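User: hey, got a sec? need Nuclease SbcCD subunit D folded
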Amino acid sequence: MVRFVHTADWQIGMTRRFLSPEAQARFAAARIDVVRRLGRLASDEGCDFVLVCGDVFEHDQLTPQTLRRTLEALRAVEVPVYLLPGNHDHLGPMSVWSTSLMSEELPDHVHVLDRPGVHEVRPGVEIVAVPWQGKHPQEDLVGPVLDDLSDPAEGTVRVLAAHGIVDLLDQERRHRAAIPTDVLRSSLDSGLVHYVGLGDRHSRTEVADGIWYSGAPEPTAWREVSPGDALVVEVEPPASGRGRGTVRVTPHHVAAWSFVTVERRVDGDADIDALDAELAALPDKDRVLVHLGLRGTLGLAQHARLEELLARHEDVLGALHRPPQHSDLVLAGDDDIAELGLGGFLASAVEDMRSMAGTGDQPDPEDEAAFAAGRPDDGSSARDALQLLYRLARGGAR
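Assistant: Yep! Here you go:
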């Protein structure tokens, strides 16, 4: 029996445009910190090695500091580590794997699976590697490697390490290099391999018996399902002859960060209070990235109160991402602005803004913020201006 950690998609060097510089620095550091946690998991579970099925790095243009910090984290892992190049960090003359820093400073127990085919971990344990040679392969990479394999020696455990989408998850047939699931099943049934470890899908996914995506150990987007895990895999070869072995897969949560989607309707103070309480109850707020979508109808005072409490939460959260295309808040009533007793030019401006705010115009979905300098006036910017005017006038009256 062999036991190992299956992980993938570390995406070290990833950036996210909605993060502040301070949050981005912590987010980037977390992608290296999780390597140490994976190493502790391997030691605690008595694993023989760690297998990373592609996309160790987000891209090839990484600073020496990022690479050296990654290598330092890998140096702390007490078992052998096998790194498979994927689509983000594929092999090639400009690859991160071809740099002198990697060749000279890679720890001795860390191995790059840069050759297709069988790599011996120890007698009786083999990894069948399918590394990416370029970013856009035009055909399946896995099938030809399996075709070249001979049967394993009796009692030998073979693990296939591959990267990319399987055809079952590519219903629209967008990927020429999609991996045929039937080929993987056939290889397992015949005993050519005994487990298929995949990378590329950041959500933990069991494709079929013995075929798994581990998902990313630190999440990368709100759309992911069950991210932040690593898999401890136990494989026993068949008792005699060819055929399937025994496979046991146990997920372990290792992530420090989380992506949370909050979509709510707010139509009054009670709804604002509930949203405030929900955001306040989030644990580890400085490592939580909230995608917020709000719809409803609020008075101007309520709208101003909502913006104030969201600004307060934004100061604590890792990020509070509010794409304008996911929000539709309507201003209702004239009483709030009338209470301020504005006159002259301001009163005229208020009427213009109120008229425009009621048009329902939405900003360009590509815009990251509700207001952008130089963007044409629209309903959203008018509502923002009314809120700001209300808050400033109310504060001045005090």
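Quick note: The radius of gyration is 27 Å. Let me know if you need anything else on Nuclease SbcCD subunit D.
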